[in-house]
Amino acid sequence: MYKAPLPRALSAACAALTLALAGCAIGPTYRAPAPATAATWHAPAPHDGNAVSLQDWWAQFNDAALTQFIAWAEAGSPTLTQAWASIEKARATLTTTRAGALPSVTASAGATRGGTTGTATTTTRSAGLDASWEVDLFGRVRRNAEAASARVEAREADWHDARVSLAAEVADTYVQYRACGLLADAYERELDSVAKTEATTATMVQAGFTAPSDGALARASLASSRSTAINQRAQCALLLKSLVYLTGRDEPELLATMAAGSTAVPQPAHLSVDSVPAQVLRQRPDLASLERELAASSAEIGAAQADLYPSLSLSGAITRSLGQSLTTWSFGPALSMSLFDGGARRAAVDSANASYTSALAGYQQGVRAAVREVENALVNLDSTRQRATEAHQAAEEYRRYFNATEANWRAGTASLLSLEDARRSALSAEITDLTLAQSQVSDWIALYKALGGGWTPGAAVTTNKNGAQP
Question: Which keywords appear in this protein's UniProt record, sorted alphabetically (predicted)?
Fold first, then answer.
């Protein structure tokens, strides 16, 4: 059997160059920047004896419908599917980039028949093997592979960020829908009460016991209450449409799921907040994505700088003519270097440096935004919690005042105007009470999202291409 010397020679040359050049990669050595943050939070942190961590926080709501809605949203979310596709694309780019550091081998085979007039027809068969390898002398391919690897990690962090945002949006919409239903019930009760008042007033006007102006006031109050109740029902319908959009399920299925549980606004367990801002920032997948983009930009500076230097390639070929038992081979290195390119390669280095500067500014801006989100969430939560306590007490007192005024009106010792003023005050206080109860839960959800939603560095992407959990 014939054995050509080319493969051994090529293998030996490749191995020697690989060992000699393994550590050679020009460009900056990347170090992740430390977030510039204060030593502690300046906003009041929530203090509660039952504080829990971010992990499995949604289960602390003890609301089966909410848990189901979040699961449905994650299972069929186009947003998560797009994020997953971005990961797959980044992984494919990484594989393609790494392939540039490996030799390429191409096999060929052919057969031809030919002849001339008066001679016999002949058949010629041949087989060949071509191999080439661009030696990564100055680390251009390695730097590009570093950048591609960092972008895979960035896209994975984006997927986690999309998942946290989706769960928070579903939960907040669900809480708003529950609160909207309670407000609609309150408006319906008030509408029923106003309708009874209007009917009684109309009877009294006809009997001459009260002035026609009181009848006009009663009818105006009834129309206003009816308009408010209609608007509130419309708001609830819109929130239900939003849940359909987020979960991908039909309205009857959503309504049936919610009917099996409580109609009250769900109350979550309180979150524990780390006292050190830098620790909280390490829990944010969006910041992790920005940092990985910064690492990729740094690696691309080295790749652009490597393009300024010569490139070395090794190539060889073996061709075997099967009919004539003739073998030809060739092997040799080739060194190339750009002598004049109009400044294109230098401009590429400048562009890479500018991209790094932009990525660094983006990361720093992201850190500032994250700190602001946490601080704002803490301030809103503290304010809403205090206001909710006062609003609940106010609602109870205004309801007592209305009941007393209504009793006096029926006894003839209070005017209809006083009754309607008391009714509007009681309704306004009840609405404020319900709204703040919903806002308090929404503020907890905002804090959950601002703290990273339970994400930790290195967390795996546990989903398939359709976004569903395995």
Answer: Lipoprotein, Membrane, Palmitate, Signal, Transmembrane, Transmembrane beta strand
User: Which residues are within 8 A (CB) of 95 and not within 5 positions of it... i.e. 6 or more apart?
Assistant: none
The predicted model gives 340-354 an average pLDDT of: 90
Tokens of 351: 């562009």
Residue 319, phi then psi, degrees to nearest 5: -125, 130
- CB burial string 350-384: b at 16+ within 10 A, e below: eebbebbeebbeebeebbeebbebbbebbebbbeb
| CA pair distance 356, 349, nearest whole angstrom | 11
Q: Who has greater pLDDT, 159 or 114?
A: 159
Q: Rounded to whole angstroms, how far apart are CA atoms 311 and 134?
A: 7
Q: Give me the residue label for tokens 């081979």.
A: 329
Predicted pLDDT at 10: 43
Terminal CA-to-CA distance of the chain, rounded, Å? Answer: 53
Comparing C-alpha atoms, which of 228, 355, 364 is closest to residue 290? 364
Q: In what order do the strands lie in the sheet with 104-114?
A: 104-114, 122-135, 311-321, 326-336
Distance (Å, whole) CA 350 – CA 336: 23
> What letter would DSSP give residue 52?
B
Ordered domains of the chain (ranges, CATH): 35-109+126-450 (1.20.1600.10)
What's the whole-model pTM score?
A: 0.83
- What residues are paired with 315 via a beta bridge? 132, 332
Task: Name the token pair of 140.
Answer: 């251009």
Q: How confident is the model over 364-417, as pLDDT tens digits?
A: 999 999 999 999 999 999 999 899 999 999 999 999 999 999 999 889 898 887
Residues 411-441 pLDDT 10s: 989 888 788 888 888 988 999 999 999 999 9
Contact 434, 263 (CB under 8 A): no
Distance CA 183, CA 340 (A): 74
19, 329 in Cβ contact below 8 A?
A: no
The predicted structure's pLDDT at residue 380: 92
DSSP count for the chain of H helices, then E strands: 10, 4
Three-state DSSP at 130 gives strand
Beta strands in 8-159 (DSSP E): 104-114, 122-135
- Within 8 A by CB and 6+ apart from 372, the residues are none
Q: Using CA atoms, how far apart are residues 193 and 65, in angstroms rounded to an integer?
A: 32
CA distances from 265 to 30, 181, 223, 365, 442 (A): 49, 9, 29, 36, 10
What's the residue count for the chain? Answer: 470
d(CA 222, CA 400): 22
Is the model's pLDDT at 341 over the cut of 50?
yes
Output the pLDDT for position 5.
42
Do the Cβ atoms of 245 and 79 come closer than 8 Å? no
